[in-house]
Amino acid sequence: xxxFDVTHLWEALVLGLIQGLTEFLPISSSAHLRIAGLFLPxxxxxxxxxxxxxxxxxxxxxxxxxxxxxxxxxxxxWLSVFSRRRGAGKYLTSDDRADARLGWYIIVGTLxxxxxxxxxQDDIRTTFRSLWIVATVxxxxxxxxxxxxxxxxxxREIRSMNTGHGLTLGLAQALALIPGVSRxxxxxxxxxxxxxTRAAAARFAFLLAIPAVLASGLYELVHAIQExxxxxxGIETLTATVLAFVVALGVIAFxxxxxxxxxxxxxxxxxxxxxxxxxxxxxxxxxxxx
Length: 290
What we know:
- By secondary structure, this protein is mostly helical.
- It is built from twelve helices and no strands.
- The protein has one domain.
- It has helices at 6-22, 29-39, 47-65, 67-82, 94-119, 121-125, 131-151, 163-174, 183-193, 198-226, 234-258, 265-283.
């Protein structure tokens, strides 16, 4: 592959745009990248490595958008854990203590995806990327999101979270190792089922994703440098990642405002429509599942 290929660069930009648009919407960015790859000139699966690296861009958007929340959580958690001997803990307010607990819930919630990501590492790159699986989980988890959004109590705020809920939300996030599930969609669905408001569920989903996505992206980045056998070159992947960052920043701002008054119904309809169309195409041999 040439270092600079106009067609590949254009494809990478398209995929970076899709990554930025879909990462935080509950419709699965990995599924959309997987499907979009089929309709680009080279008709290739972008691969798990490209997907994970471009997600670094979208997570940097989270860090920037929620920078105040993140700084407050890290500060409170640090003071509550490492500064007790110096008496710093006694200066923490009730809000500080709530932020410190939230830091623990993010750590606890990250454990399931870390463990399962290691166990199913090979399947993530191969089996889980079958379009039959992608299409099926798009539809199934669209229905799950519909049920959770329709009948969830939507009364709890993020500060009422506990360790059990943090772990349960982490288990939901781990399902996103399968393209089509959607990291935000699975976590938000579980949050709604546990009675959290739409905005609270989305906020925790975004915060919870930071450690897992950054770790996965950095791991894949090192892997790509050591074994450069990806569909897209380094400069193409970097360009896609930068574009994903810019677009994702706008999407986060939009979604947080949107969820204050509206439901997830448009995203549910989109998931079921895309998954259903993909199942029909696969059933009729229009596209190959692999």
